Sequence to fold (506 residues):
Amino acid sequence: MKKHQLLFLFIFISNFIFGQDTLRCHTLGLKLSESQIKEHLLFEEKVQKYLSSNFRLENVNITIPVVVHVVYNLQKQYVSEEQVLSQIAVLNQDYSRTNSDTSQTPNVFKQVAGASDIRFKLAVQDPNGKPTNGITYTNTTVSEFSDDDKVKLTSSGGIDAWDPKSYLNLWVCNLTPGVLGYFPGDSVPHEAGTYNDGVVVSYRAFGTIGSQLSSTYNLGRTSTHEIGHWLGLYHPWGTPWGSLCSSDYINDTPQQKDGSRGCPVFPYIDSDCFNAPNGRNYSNFMDYTSDRCMNMFTKGQVQRMMAILNLSRNSILTSKALDPPFNKDLAISIVFDSSEVCSRKDIFPKVRIFNYGKDTVTDYSISFTYNGTTNSYSWKGKLPSLSDTVWVLNDVVLSPEQVTLSAEVSFNKPGIDEFLPNNAKILSFACTQPLSIYPNPVSETLYVSGNLPKVNSSIIYNLQGEEVLKVNNATQIDVTGLEPGFYLIVLETNEKAIRKQLIVIK
Fold:
């Protein structure tokens, strides 16, 4: 019998993808089987017993090791390390209630706002005991993933999870239009550790930097929301199998009828749910408002998340993923924002130096090469274990064309680094520019600019439909041999033929 899955999804529908402040819950297999519902209810009994008997809000700090799996088909879907770090920063702010927008919480709900002791950090040790930056990259042939968990399998174009009992797995990919992110709700919390135990987020709703981010979902709150599910939270309007205005098992979240859209105005009252005078708490991270309008968990939600960590996710509390595997291990990455480099401004490159070793680093050297020219730098000081620093290389200016960068870091004393594969990075990037022709009208030389998509040949036709000129792979076309008049130029590319009107003058 086919197993139905319930998926918690951030989704919206509009005429333009990611274009409007509408957000809607989407489910697959809305009806769970009776046995699956029974499992949820039995587990819920354990949660409530734990909360009522021996749980206290005061807990030791918990740091969850995270691995981010970036699965991309096109260059624009590639998520940089800096974008990943921006998402981790958002998670730590949102879960500790140190986010900058807490003042937007309606006063009545500020009284129940909770700050957890849960923190997130990229893993520094992979499942094989090797150093890692906590990010994997997979260039896939799959153009788009849906909510069927195929992105979580190497065999279907994604990548397999790292041990879900030791890592929070977070996949970033190109999701079906309209889907911001999802979490497989029938696998957790009572089945923690299954192959699909982890969160999936669209590359357009991940982190706070990047040229491809949605203008509505650009504050990293999709991950905050979905990880809330990973930690056992339901939507404020209750369990998927419950009736209208059902319970989410949290005492300080008002009942509500469904997911909130956009940015509501206080009070947002549901007459069906009898939640007057204050109405629903649309500021809650587990609702469906726009990123800029969600800003809090409640104290009850914090307690529940801590309970889930102690009951069904306790193996992650003893994970070795945050333990440095070596005493001396330097690593380097290139801080790169394509939107900056392609903005045609003078941009200075940056490199980030990590100390993944247990020992404090007191000196190192950097070698940086840009389009064949190498610059060297030396440093002395103190870089503690598991810390990093960013260098801005003010003597190198990046151009907005083809970019090829390489960087290498090493201890000043040779031979003491215990893991060399992370000492060097190479990055190649070509700025994507839409195709255009200029000048138009033209008298002598027509220029073809842009590289999205790449032009293989250019063909010019007269008004009778006759081919009068054809050139291959040319960025400059001599039109002095053409009579003045109107023409059609067809740019043949790998993807499609692009047609533009052309006027030749003398």
About this structure: The first strand starts at residue 7 and ends at 11.
